[in-house]
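Exam review. A common question shows you a sequence with its structure tokens and asks you to describe the fold in words. Practice with the pair below. Do the first one on your own.
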Amino acid sequence: MKGIKLISALMVAAVVISGCSTNKDTDISVDDLQPETTDITTESETTYIRITSSETQPATYEFNPHVYSSTLAVEIPQDYWDSFYNMCDALRAGESTFSCSSQEAYDFCMKDSTTANLFPAACLKISGESNDGTTPYENGVGRIYYKMPVEDFVVRQAEFENLITDILNSTLENDDTDFEKCLKLYLYIAENYDYEDDDGELTGECSFYQTFMTKKGICVDYGAVYGYLLLQVGIDALDVGCFEPDMCHAWTYVVLNGQGYHVDTTWALSSCYGMQEVYLDYFLMSDEDRNEDGCLVRDLTMQALPQFFLSNSNIKLSATDETYSFPDFSTFVSLDEENKILYYKDMYGQMYEMNYDI
């Protein structure tokens, strides 16, 4: 059992951790990893390798204002997406109207849960309620009511876009596989963010956006932050959660190579354990792994879904693949991108390797 308890005003996670088995049992020694070839290293006191690659490719990711989730699209019609993208373009330009297909699409665009997950800088900073007597939606046109000076919002959005592209370009490479993108962004959050419960302090900011800006947050924030970064690079991922008598927690549901997985960046945070190693127990988990952790997947929530509970929608999530399951207390050691091998060690320090090019 990993002794950590995460408590917040929104969710309480009484953490009972139970790892899963693995059939990836090739023994190696730390000397075999050749640390002198690494391109990215950890702090001087760390003895394991971060990322190894024979030839890195500088990243040139650009901000994507039109992120898309095929999982969410099961419930959200295409005209809603088109209307939302029209709104995103209008927001980036500081405009006050956008083309919108219907009142229902307008309501979807203006929901705080929609903007929080799909266009974070706008969450809590725009409204669909008139403050000047105008009609919010009429004749295919939706109005944007800003809660801050428009020029300030445009600057805010630009700064957020720069932050996202900085994260992607400093963490990823252009030739990364989807697996590598998932892992590198998982490691990025685990190593750079802290768990912090503000006890419900009102800041006037969407907590998801605030976590990006401060690198602090709670489980529901990390589920959304990781999901948004993956959406930026074309991987379907969304914040999900469970509400059980002994476990209220949130994480990210990720679709990788056509298979669904659960990824819990909150319980992977290095800061939670006072150590630099990152646990891999919470990376690409199956339903069985997640259930054994105490987070039952029988009726999950989804923050971006208007109905909130999946049971009230047509969305069905499944994570049956155990290809990437790791033993209990496994920690990341290095990534050999040329040979597509992930090196990790168990709780006793024994080294293992996984060929992830499958």
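Now try the second one, then compare your answer with the model answer below.
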Amino acid sequence: MRVVLLQLYRLGVLLAVVAMVRAHHVRLRIEGDAPVAVAEVTGWFTNAVELQIDAGARGGFQVRGAAGEELGYVIRTQPQGNKIVGYCGITDTLVGLDREGRVVGFRIRKSEDTRTHVADVLADRHFRKTWNGMSWEQVAGMDLKAAGVEGVSGATLTSMALAEAVVHRFRVAQGEARAQPWRVRWRDVGLVAVVGAGVWLTFTRRAGRVRWRRWFQWVVVGYVGFVNGDLLAQSLFAGWARAGVPWRLAPGLVLLAAAALVVPWVSGRPLYCQQLCPHGVAQEWLGRVVPARWRVKVPVAWDRGLRWLPGLLLLFVLVVVMLPLDFELAGLEPFDGYVLRAAGGATLAVAVVGLVAAAFVPKAYCRYGCPTGALLEFGRARGAGDRFGAREVAAAVLVAVVAVMWWKHAWIHSFVYGAAA
């Protein structure tokens, strides 16, 4: 009974944090929503001086010139598209239409997805012209799959969520809104197969398991890391806590995250960190090839101190998310470094430093630097000898910090939006 209660406590901690982060950001999104400014549409309508709210079914803005003449029309995908989540958040998009009601382009007002993914979307000329020249009815009736819209390489989930939100917004205005369809792609099928193989390797005791695992590691690094690129990270979990989980858009990634959380919580076996993390595999490979004489023994006092670093990084992530601060969480971890097109300088630096450290201290980054690993490890069952300890006390402190920031939302709202007001 003690072990069961302890696992329920750990689950309760995670659910409490997610619930408060979600409620906080829904509140901020409503209270702090910035109106569309004329400057945002002058790229399409150079003579624009006024945006007149359209109270009709379309719910957009008529763009008018100095003499009051109509120049065009613009709509936002928010708040109507606030349940369409990309890789790790919602994207607010502005779409412009000319006087004949034909789309002239779109621009991203704000996105909770990673900056590199958003930059890749904006840099893709073909994707930027997806709806150009289409009428309102054509966009509203568009089937993205039939139209061959597959997203931007390196930012597939971000771009597809943007596309889904645009089409959904036009349908809402037409009174034809539909539930977001399930989009199962080959990348999802591949990820499900990898998760299944990882679960099998985690629980099997068959002869040859070690040999099979070494072959499987090539799949993890090659396919999960460099080809698929759907990796678990703090930017992902924070985005899902803020905006919701993209069940329909990224079922493979959702299954990966669910397996990584549930399997250790139920069985005590660290599925993701042991089997499915490309960076963990890369460090393990280094441990095999680097001469034993290179290894450094970390003093006990240093070891104890450094093991607190992942927890402190989790605290930093929560502060960034709750305030919210203008900080790219992907730069805290090395995982975006495997998606070469999306890799930022900070991400690559963390990846390189982590690998260099692993050459001297086995799996140094996993032990002393990984907040995502610490999150997954927190929920892991530890058998009959499991006890309430320092880890659980630290978790309670994190919950208290989030609760205070959630409770003081008025101060946070003033902090974030006061200057703009």
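Model answer, second protein: The chain has a mean pLDDT of 87. The first helix runs from residue 2 to 31. Full marks require stating both points clearly.
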